[in-house]
């Protein structure tokens, strides 16, 4: 059996070891991983979240080494990919019969790359259904393209139609995902002629990573309510902490919408009373559409300033340790080098 290097999670431990080279199932491509990003979800999985065992990781860019019939044009292309693998059986699966937007995130028998019953991207090669893959424009660097999955997750809020052009919007949390959400919603409000998005965080240098095109209004807050509290129509919590969730709730006006973009273990003492009293609409938001994410990257959005460090796969443990360090933004694992450009 052919093997390759992979970073394997088992319980609360993770180690680099030889793993079998994956074999493509019907309709799947084999993809040689170029770069795997480390996500906060990956770090939580290594602590036991989801009870996952196997190769972790879901943000990536790679090159298609083999493709099934009907998708031959993907061979040799750089790609990113939807991480949810759905059954697609519209005859027996009510969710899949409702269309891709619902099936993508909610097929009841889905597997999820590096998260649920599907080995992920911290290895040399992966397999994914050809229909899940999206070709990266030639002029977008692999380092930038590796942000496509979390950028798509930010676009999910737009896809869900949660923000009206006239809405006052606040994004709380200046971590990696918060920066991307502020970028996407800021640009959307600029295009719609709406109010500037307010970006609430603790680190001015992180909030400054949002491009000028998004025109966000950064507000520094160390858990203290900024001016205009309880007046926002839509507030997005991207903090991943109970304290951040409480701040987001306090910013939201009565009858407003609170979007939960990251998970946090609130514990048994979580107080629901303020949410009920203010009659807030609480909406979860997960994976999103790749086409607008790739279009934005192709238009010139450069997310590589978010990269704190890059490590080879052979130093995956050090990469994970760096990613878990306070103040770190994005850590990338370089699995394979980009191919040399062809010479005509």
From TrEMBL:
Tell me one GO molecular function of this protein.
Answer: metal ion binding
Query: Residue ranges of the Alcohol dehydrogenase-like C-terminal domain?
Result: 191-298
Q: Where is the Alcohol dehydrogenase-like N-terminal domain?
A: 26-138
Q: Does the keyword Transport apply?
A: no
Keyword Signal assigned to the entry: answer is no
**Record key words, sorted:** Metal-binding, Oxidoreductase, Zinc
The residue range of the signal peptide is none
Cofactor requirements of the protein: Zn(2+)
Record Gene3D superfamilies: Medium-chain alcohol dehydrogenases, catalytic domain, NAD(P)-binding Rossmann-like Domain
Give the UniProt family note.
Answer: Belongs to the zinc-containing alcohol dehydrogenase family.
Name under which the protein is recorded: L-threonine 3-dehydrogenase
